[in-house]
Here is the input.
Amino acid sequence: MTVLAPIKRRRGRPPKDQAAFSETKADLIRSGMELLTEKGFSSTGLDEILGRVGVPKGSFYHYFGSKDAFGSELIKQYTTFFNHKLDKFLLDESLAPLDRLEAFINDTIAGMARHEFKRGCLVGNLGQEMGALPESFREQLNEVFIEWQQRIALCLEQAKCAKQISVKTDSTEAAYVFWTGWEGAVLRAKLEQSDSALKVFSAYFLDSLK
Here is the structure.
């Protein structure tokens, strides 16, 4: 698991220098994403996030209007990060389309193992907490899943053209099934602290396409 180096606590009001302000805000977002992928939104207090970055509690609202606004920004930033990761694999033309999906799966399994299966998917974690979250998060999270499904569906369409999977495969439906099952497997992996659920689901899913 990655361990953050201690950061010296900043005193007083946030820095006036724009570069320093932006750096501190980015540190808060990074700290929030790390904690929320482990613990979720409801279980993560501002004190814990601020403590990792060394920002006094009273200064938080100079960077974000509220914890809800902070959560919304975390979803945006995590989505940008994860979209980049998906594109890195799914648009890799050096691999056949279905092999790209397998490469993404294997990389994600390795990443969870590095963090001892304590970190999952921020979007999936928030989806499980929806009953206790602002209603505004619902549309934002749904839009993220739709984006991810579209990326997988495109990859599967290319796999059909490459004759790697059955031409009868409904790529849009299969992409929906993938994310529904994958998020459940990520949750089970955290629970069991094992890659078994991830490997079983991905093998079953990939086999079902052929």
About this structure: DSSP finds nine helices and no strands in the chain.
